[in-house]
Design a protein that fits this description.
By secondary structure, the protein is α+β, with helices and mostly antiparallel strands. The protein contains eight helices and four strands. The longest helix is centred in the first third of the chain and has 11 residues.
Length: 163
């Protein structure tokens, strides 16, 4: 899941009606990056053109990331990719690639947007189990998005070379 020299850019697709996504994207947009990051709201004309196959009445859509080498990430993996793309938070992103911590990546990203000092304090803990235990006490705002890792057929409509 690393951002490599071959991944010089990525598109982050998000639902701007989702409190979790919106606050994180706002925070992320002010961070320095290790690669070029483009933020694409599913409600934008650009995304609506690419994702024509989505039902117009779909309430919310989960975060997704596409890198310039064609990698597609959804759910936990998409949140991890975003943290890996942050210049100042790459070490946290690296820790999130561990199977145990990747399952809490969305909470970590929410915490980053909400309280960056608390995030650094949390990740100063050496034990991943303790991090998971502390994150279990944090509740996320309500979001109707299903972050399951189902096959993401909607991404097939994104033209190659967009990034």
């Amino acid at each position: 899941m690393k951002i490599t020299q071959f991944n010089k850019s990525m598109d982050v697709y998000y639902d701007d009606r989702c409190a979790i996504c919106s606050s994180f994207i706002k925070w992320l947009s002010f961070q320095p990056y290790v690669c070029n990051i483009t933020f694409v709201s599913y409600q934008s004309a650009r995304a609506e053109e690419w994702f024509r196959s989505l039902p117009a009445n779909e309430s919310e859509r989960s975060l997704a990331v596409r890198n310039d080498s064609g990698g597609m990430y959804r759910g936990d993996a998409a949140w991890v990719q975003c943290m890996l793309g942050c210049l100042n938070h790459g070490t946290i992103g690296e820790r999130l690639t561990a199977p145990a911590l990747s399952t809490v990546a969305k909470k970590v990203c929410h915490l980053a947007a909400k309280n960056e000092d608390e995030l650094w304090e949390l990740f100063s803990i050496a034990n991943d189990d303790e991090i998971i235990s502390r994150l279990a006490k944090i509740s996320l705002p309500h979001c109707k998005v299903d972050d399951s890792d189902d096959v993401m057929t909607i991404m097939a409509g994104v033209p190659d070379g967009i990034i």
